[in-house]
C-alpha cells in the first residue's frame, strides 16, 4: 500500500504513520529530502527515518528496505552525507533491513543541468558514472523487498560507463539544447565534491539492462 502526504501521512511529523503501517510486513522507504543539499538532507533523513523506523517497530515489520545512493559511503559531504546518516539509522535498528544504493539515474541528469547552469554553460565534473533508468532501480528495489533481508547493502548501476560531462553533452544534444558543457572538477554533485571514481559502484553490483540510447528512445 502506498504511503504519502496524499494519503494523509507525514513522515516528518509522524502523523498517520502508525495507522498506515499497521499490519505491514515490509516497509520500502523511497522518501527523499525536499532539496539535495546537506542541510535539507540531514534534517529530513534524521527525522523521517527515525519516525519510519519507530512506526515500523511498533507494527512488527519484518523487513525495512531503504533506497540510498552509490557514493554515500565515500562522499562525506552534501546530500551524500545525509544518505549516509539514513543508512546508519537503518543499520542500527533492530528491524532486519536491506539497503539498495542506486547509481545516478538518467532522469537526475536534467536536475543537474538546471543546478549547474552558468553564463558560459553547464558546469559538470568529469567523474565516472554508470547511470541507469529509474525503472531499473524500481525493479531492483522490488526484488529485494520480496526477498530475505540482506542485513547489508546491494548496489545497482547501469550497463555502460561514462564520464559525467560527456554524458551531459549527449543528453543536451539529444534534447536539442544548445548550451555548452564546461568540464569543471570543482562543479561537484548535490553539494559534494566528487572524485573520478567516487560515483562508481563496488564490484558485485546488480547491473540494470537499460542503456542510455534505449532510455532516450523510450522517453
From TrEMBL:
Q: Tell me which Gene3D superfamilies the record gives.
A: NAD(P)-binding Rossmann-like Domain (3.40.50.720)
Lineage here is: Bacteria, Bacillati, Actinomycetota, Actinomycetes, Kitasatosporales
Name of the protein this chain belongs to: NAD(P)-binding domain-containing protein
Q: Could you tell me the superkingdom of the organism this chain comes from?
A: Bacteria
Amino acid at each position: 500500500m502506498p504511503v504519502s502526504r496524499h494519503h494523509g501521512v507525514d513522515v516528518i511529523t509522524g502523523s498517520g504513520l502508525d495507522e498506515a503501517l499497521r499490519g505491514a510486513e515490509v516497509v520500502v522507504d523511497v522518501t527523499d529530502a525536499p532539496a539535495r543539499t546537506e542541510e535539507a538532507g540531514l534534517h529530513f533523513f534524521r527525522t523521517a527515518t527515525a519516525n519510519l523506523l519507530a512506526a515500523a517497530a511498533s507494527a512488527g515489520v519484518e523487513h525495512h528496505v531503504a533506497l540510498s545512493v552509490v557514493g554515500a559511503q565515500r562522499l562525506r559531504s552534501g546530500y551524500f552525507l545525509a544518505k549516509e546518516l539514513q543508512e546508519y539509522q537503518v543499520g542500527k535498528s533492530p528491524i532486519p533491513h536491506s539497503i539498495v544504493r542506486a547509481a545516478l539515474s538518467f532522469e537526475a541528469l536534467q536536475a543537474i543541468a538546471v543546478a549547474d547552469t552558468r553564463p558560459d554553460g553547464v558546469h559538470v565534473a568529469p567523474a565516472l558514472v554508470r547511470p541507469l533508468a529509474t525503472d531499473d532501480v524500481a525493479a531492483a528495489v522490488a526484488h529485494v523487498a520480496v526477498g530475505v533481508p540482506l542485513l547489508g547493502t546491494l548496489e545497482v548501476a547501469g550497463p555502460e560507463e561514462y564520464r559525467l560531462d560527456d554524458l551531459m553533452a549527449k543528453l543536451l544534444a539529444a534534447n536539442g539544447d544548445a548550451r555548452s558543457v564546461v568540464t569543471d572538477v570543482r562543479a561537484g554533485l548535490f553539494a559534494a565534491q566528487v572524485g573520478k571514481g567516487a560515483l562508481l559502484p563496488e564490484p558485485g553490483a546488480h547491473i540494470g539492462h537499460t542503456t542510455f540510447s534505449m532510455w532516450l528512445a523510450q522517453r
